[in-house]
Records
---
Amino acid sequence: MHTSAAGSDPSSGAVARRRIAVLGPRGQIGRVVVRELLAQGAEVVTVSRSATPPAGVFAHRAVGADAPEALGRALRDCSSVIVAVGLPYRAAVWEREWVPLMQTIVAAASDHDIPLTVLDNLYAYGRASGPISEAQPLAPCSRKGDARRAGAAVLEHARAWGADIVLCRAADFLGPGAETTVLPWSTITRILARRGGRFNWFGPPEYRHSFALPGDVARGLITVCSHPRLRAAPAVHLPAIAPFSGDELAAQLARAAGGPVSARVLSRGLLAVAGLFSSAAREQLEMRYQFASNYVIDDSVFRGLVPGEPRRELSDIIALARPGR
């Protein structure tokens, strides 16, 4: 595995002394984006409803993303905006709020001709018959996927009218700090600390699934923010960990833990019953299709333009979770 974060990225250092706004600076990815921008010497402007600024930023502006004029004023002196906002993981909330949120952000940035780099997931693609590339048509098969496709249409419309917008799609998060995801990091660290245990897997454990390390996602967003060739396309896939199956995860965790590890397979029926008592289970039920076959992201466009990007294997991720690290 390559260990250099920046590698031979031609845009490495390109954000130094630039004033870059981060929307959603306290989320799973937003807080990592802030940290990485600061490490690269950017002047970071964070924008959120919270009145408390993250440590070390150039400025913090307490503005809700539902107020386009106020948001526009908060962004007007920034050279670029990275959008890492999220909503509660409920389909009804996404259906109601995601499109208006994208419309507000686009309107605020367009008023000042500020480029947008927007984080998204893979839900709009729906089912996959092979590796998912940027060329795959959007064909969502879930309510949350429909909401994401509708939000993407807002960005595509603005781009058609000349706005500088790139949509960056990432696989499910796996790594330090990622908890609201299908494989919470605390589950992995607990298995290693207790020398064995079980983790949830949402389909047959022989199928492979793509995940992404939060740090790689954050650095990928920053790279897209300043990389002209990556900005030439309307959408790009951010770098992912090499895909793995539930069986492979169990085997590697067992070797690392020195004890038995197994996947707890959550069938559709089990999730449906759990959904009677748990809103999280209800929301996950419609996304189970992603584990019913191989669900693998193709990140070759990004890697072709950023040849120094680290290639993470499952073993690298497990090493991050070892006790004492």
Note: The longest strand covers residues 43-48.
---
Amino acid sequence: MKFNDDVREEAANWFAALRRGPMTVEERTDYDEWRQSPVNQAALNSMHELWGELAALNPEAVKPQRSPARASRRWLPVAASVALMLGAGTIYLAWPGTEPTATQIATAVGEQRTTTMPDGSVITANVATRLAFADKHHERIVDLGEGEAVFFVRKDKSRPFLVRTEDYEVRAVGTAFNVRNREGLLDVAVIEGIVAIKALSGPREGQEIARITAGKRVSLGNAAALPPSTPILAAAIPSEGIAEWRTRTLDYEDAPISRVVEDLNLFFPRQVKLADPKLGDQRVTIRLQVEDRERALATLADLLGLKVNKGRDQETLSE
């Protein structure tokens, strides 16, 4: 897809903003509105891919660099220029002392982090996530211990990109996809390209159990419970809706309330509880902007007809 100069410049600005660290509430609002356009989202995806492809020209060109936690909007055009200058291979970034073959990423409650791996792939880790990246001779491996991340993989047909959990392995060559691994449940959604999922345990150990194309997602439970031969069906999902958590937006369709509350608690230290566990079984379709905790909680309570009871250390939702 071709983009005009204005769209490319805006995409570069937002790409730089995402890499620098947390945005302000105003920035996130502007960003969320801007990426509603499929063209804008596609341009941003291309920027991520460009960042990765540069490593094919110069593997040293896209080593990771910690970004300052805060910066003003006036800095964005400068940052965008840096991102664009990378296309000419003129800017070299590195963390002093970084071990190139083993990168650990751990985010706390409410923290998100974007990191460029030694191979040029870009990983954005969601809140409360723990993973390790190993850049090996024949393959690139991410051990996703717990949490969620979106991967923009630099193409390298000779070295597949593997994301492993206890039960499954997600295999890609050059693509963009999101993996969620929480409480023994795996969710994989593909933004671009194709990924294959293999079982690492259970009755189908060693077998490819699913192949997912762009705009599709699968959800899997314990590998031990997989039926021996039943095909795994992928559900459709708009590519622009994948990994919206990067803008602190949570979108649910027919999801249990317990899942919504669990996710909300990963963004803020102050917890939300359900007065009656049975409430968690009710299902809801909702879109929450969780930059503002109080507003998100009020939106959820209003939709469900629940009361918010404030306590010393937490809020409780009750009928």
Note: The chain has a mean pLDDT of 80.
